[in-house]
């Protein structure tokens, strides 16, 4: 029904020309007769007998037709309230008349020449001949509306006349891509972006000022064109809140921001307006989790809703996960249950510094002295709060007291940071060194996680906490007179400076 309306042949046929190609004149006499009969029956349809394949409509008309294929009706420019009907337009396209029994074979053989547009049927009824169908071709693939030699060869084998006719095809809102729709609506010459991040059923945009008057329309177009998206939000401030979530405006669709996502085969539920979730971190999450072995211990200082913690627990690691945001903490608990790892994860809702000074210190003090020379268990500390985490590294200075564990047992830190520096790896390393109070030369690695914005990178620096940073050794000369103790401590700071 819809197809007929869209391709309504006789009603929409303006001037339909059959074109004969250079190779077609002798090969298909039977079809020639048929074409001649057509020309008498359909008003406005006439046969062009010129053999020159470049003899078609004037170039400019062809070009316009081709452009129109990708541009909705020009009257939509400046529209702020979506009126789908206004996008309709009629374009001239080539069609090939084919017996209905072999339509599928022709479609397969000419698949690169057939017109592909969203929601568009590739075959139309032929109202003049119930036994035939009209295969809609892409004008871009048929310069001059005449088939190339290879297509003609294919058709010859199928005993199909290679003549193409011109048809008026009605394109509707459904047949345009979202970018084409937005390009037609937004002011000419200004950037049109239909890019978004997807979090479950939510599309998340970051619109520029010039796009704001069109924001509701943009939201609706995204819903229309992306199955599964039922809510579109726009970020209304930069992500600088303590909890790394941002304020947002619902532009279109339902206002429900509780959603479900899947990352690396693990399901998470979350309220997108209250917690941090970034689908661009999935590779990084799995990169870190791959470093872990079953029975390793993971301390996740800024855990969010658990994208490091839960896969690590699934891998049978012992996990301590913390987040300051009570909403994140609650969703973390929820997701632990959802993924049946609540017995493997101890969750905390405190400041990262308190978490390191409390539960992390306690666990390390208990477990590190028990490690053998070649320990089976590794301890990893993940710190994904790129705007601030490096500043937390000073917590490791003398976090533990006593004899250092074996070098192999020293905990491994994976700390994230942003850098706008020319040499971001060097920048991150220097900032980590300043915070730790020691050089990491030759004992750290940096990994580029992603480009966050032009000239802004997110990196991860990984290193084992040096024993002299992590451990405060009991002072051997405790109990000596104060003057001697002072001398000893001066010597040791000079030593540190020299080393
Ligand atoms: C960038 S998100 C990372 C979340 C998660 N680890 C991930 O990879 O998706 C940082 C998280 O740190 C939490 N956070 C911010 N400041 C904190 C602090 N001082 N102590 C603990 N958590 C904090 C935020 O609530 C947020 O969930």
Automatic annotation (TrEMBL):
Catalytic activities: guanosine(37) in tRNA + S-adenosyl-L-methionine = N(1)-methylguanosine(37) in tRNA + S-adenosyl-L-homocysteine + H(+)
Pfam families the UniProt entry points to: TRM5-TYW2_MTfase, TYW2_N_2
Single Gene Ontology MF annotation: tRNA (guanine(37)-N1)-methyltransferase activity
GO BP terms in the entry: mitochondrial tRNA methylation; tRNA N1-guanine methylation
Gene Ontology CC, one term: nucleus
Ranges of biased composition (kind: Basic and acidic residues): 488-499
EC number: 2.1.1.228
Entries under PROSITE patterns matching the protein: SAM_MT_TRM5_TYW2 (PS51684)
Chain ranges of the SAM-dependent methyltransferase TRM5/TYW2-type domain: 196-467
Free-text function comment from the UniProt entry: Involved in mitochondrial tRNA methylation. Specifically methylates the N1 position of guanosine-37 in various tRNAs. Methylation is not dependent on the nature of the nucleoside 5' of the target nucleoside. This is the first step in the biosynthesis of wybutosine (yW), a modified base adjacent to the anticodon of tRNAs and required for accurate decoding. Specifically methylates the N1 position of guanosine-37 in various cytoplasmic and mitochondrial tRNAs. Methylation is not dependent on the nature of the nucleoside 5' of the target nucleoside. This is the first step in the biosynthesis of wybutosine (yW), a modified base adjacent to the anticodon of tRNAs and required for accurate decoding.
Assembly: Monomer.
Protein family per UniProt: Belongs to the class I-like SAM-binding methyltransferase superfamily. TRM5/TYW2 family.
UniProt protein name: tRNA (guanine(37)-N1)-methyltransferase
Species of provenance: Falco tinnunculus
Gene: TRMT5
